[in-house]
Design goal:
heterotrimer, A mainly beta, B alpha+beta, C mainly alpha, B: 6-stranded mixed beta sheet, 2 helices, 15% helix, 39% strand
């Protein structure tokens, strides 16, 4: 399980556009870097990210080797009702992680 | 200020450096953009790529892409893609957005292998494509580990 | 009119006589781009905070069934570790030499937790060190005044001023004499060790002061001492003196 830092406002007003920020610990090995012996280190990337609210897609991303290590993704969401935000990351070597945060909308 | 730093960098590296005016984007990057747009014309405008013009380390460069769009059911951004011309691969990141996104505003941190051009392309719900190009100067660490 | 002017002159003289000179020392933070500064300022954007989370988990984890976790003796780190990182390196009476925070953590692990010490620069050691250092964030660096530290600190300063390596450069030549200038495209900072362990963009990971010092020594093509070598700790000891009073920023971000 990789460490994550998720920024979700504790509450939001109906109709407000809120900012969601995610940070996850991952080396994002590009597959282009040589090691000390000159051998190329094998690729190890997070390749997909998705954020859903009550099952509905808010934002998704395809990540390439050019995304920096410990990927940081920030986007927005229109808050209309309370519910559950789910964040998912998938990648090489079977990497898969899900986090959920409850959002209260008043 | 930027021009002076550029010239200092050039002198330090012993190379001739010109102020980046209009640089021809690599054909590979154009192909990648064309592929993303499915052959549709990509016009400059509507989208803004925010990236510092001078970067102190290419390993983690913050970028923000925004599009002025109501993000309504009938008029919204469906995708934002960022391309480069000097990294080993042309693609950087591709976002998919929906009206639930509320705004077309995404940020991330990217890797830049060297000074190069970045292009952000936005795909709108009406099928049109818009782009914004920025030249980025990347300074490399002086002492390697 | 004259009396008023004279009074103003007197006040001005008094003010200038008692005015504190501004500290000429600049943290590396001040030399960074606004974007990198923003990365350090925001705990939700600083990649080192992921490492800190690991440290917090390790703090509560007992290394074995028979040994206590750090929290078993020290309780909550926010109280017990407050100020600790700000006064390391410190003199260790058992080893009769100065040790830095990572060595102190490993010493605890060996003696009090009956466990194998963490490898230098290992993820676990950096995580614990970052977590402990965070508890002193914002506090002034306060090197101990222990007289037993005088000789090792003097040796550290001598190394700081010694020209080393094939490039024949001393720390002082870049970081004292040429700070603010440029090496290649990079700005030369004054080299204050105010934020360690830190996330270095160049490393794409968190690293210790020892790693950075070895990095620099390699840069001037000098023989690099092993992790934990007394020379490195003595140099860190001198740097803490050089940085005394400056705010600890750990865990910082640097380019």
């Amino acid at each position: 399980m990789a460490r994550t830092l998720l920024t979700v406002p504790p509450t939001a007003k109906r109709g407000e556009v809120i900012e969601l920020r995610t940070l996850i610990a991952h080396i994002m090995e590009t597959g282009f870097r040589p090691d000390a012996n000159g051998q190329v280190k094998p690729r190890d990337l997070i390749t997909r990210f998705a954020c859903r609210f009550n099952g509905e897609l808010v934002c998704s991303a395809e990540l390439y080797p050019a995304v920096a290590a410990n990927p940081y993704l920030s986007f927005t969401m229109l808050a209309t009702e309370s519910g559950t935000l789910s964040f998912s990351w998938e990648g090489d070597n079977g990497f898969s992680q899900n986090e959920s945060v409850v959002l209260t909308v008043t | 200020m930027q021009r002076r730093e550029l010239l200092q960098l050039g002198v330090a590296l012993g190379t001739v450096v010109t102020v980046p005016a209009v640089r021809a984007t690599s054909s590979e990057m154009q192909d990648a953009i064309r592929g993303y747009a499915n052959g549709a014309p990509v016009k400059p405008g509507k989208v803004k790529l925010d990236v510092p013009p001078l970067v102190e380390n290419g390993n983690a460069v913050p970028i923000t892409v925004s599009v002025d769009s109501p993000m309504s059911a009938t008029e919204h951004v469906t995708g934002i893609a960022v391309f480069n011309d000097r990294n080993p691969q042309r693609d950087v990141v591709r976002f998919t957005l929906t009206p639930r996104s509320g705004k077309a505003l995404v940020s991330t941190r990217i890797r830049l292998a060297t000074s190069q051009q970045l292009v952000a392309v936005a795909r709108l719900s009406d099928g049109s494509y818009w782009s914004h190009s920025v030249d980025v100067l990347v300074t490399l660490a002086a002492c390697l580990e | 009119m004259k009396r008023w002017a004279a009074a103003l002159l007197v006040v001005a003289c008094c003010l200038s006589a008692t005015a504190q000179p501004t500290d000429p020392r600049r943290s590396g933070f001040d030399d960074m781009s606004p974007q990198t500064q923003a990365m350090q300022r925001d705990d939700m954007q600083n990649p080192a905070m992921l490492t800190v989370q690991d440290g917090a988990a390790l703090w509560d984890r007992a290394p074995s069934a028979s040994a206590k976790a750090c929290s078993g003796c020290h309780g909550a780190a926010a109280t017990s570790m407050r100020g600790v990182a700000a006064r390391y390196p410190a003199f260790d009476n058992a080893l009769k030499r100065p040790i830095d925070l990572s060595q102190r953590i490993n010493q605890c692990r060996e003696r009090r937790q009956q466990s194998v010490p963490f490898a230098p620069e290992s993820a676990e050691l950096l995580a614990l060190e970052s977590y402990v250092a965070l508890q002193s964030r914002g506090m002034p660096i306060t090197p101990p005044t222990d007289p037993k530290l005088q000789a090792p600190r003097a040796r550290g300063e001598a190394l700081y001023r010694q020209r080393i390596g094939q490039l024949d450069l001393s720390c002082a030549q870049c970081h004292d004499e040429r700070a603010g200038g440029r090496l290649g495209g990079s700005l030369i900072p004054q080299g204050h060790a105010t934020g360690y362990p830190l996330y270095r963009l160049e490393w794409q990971s968190v690293g210790s002061l020892q790693r950075r010092l070895r990095n620099c020594m390699n840069g001037v093509r000098a023989e690099v001492p092993a992790y934990g070598a007394p020379e490195l700790v003595e140099l860190a000891l001198y740097l803490a003196w050089r940085d005394r009073g400056m705010k600890l920023e750990s865990p910082a971000v640097r380019p």
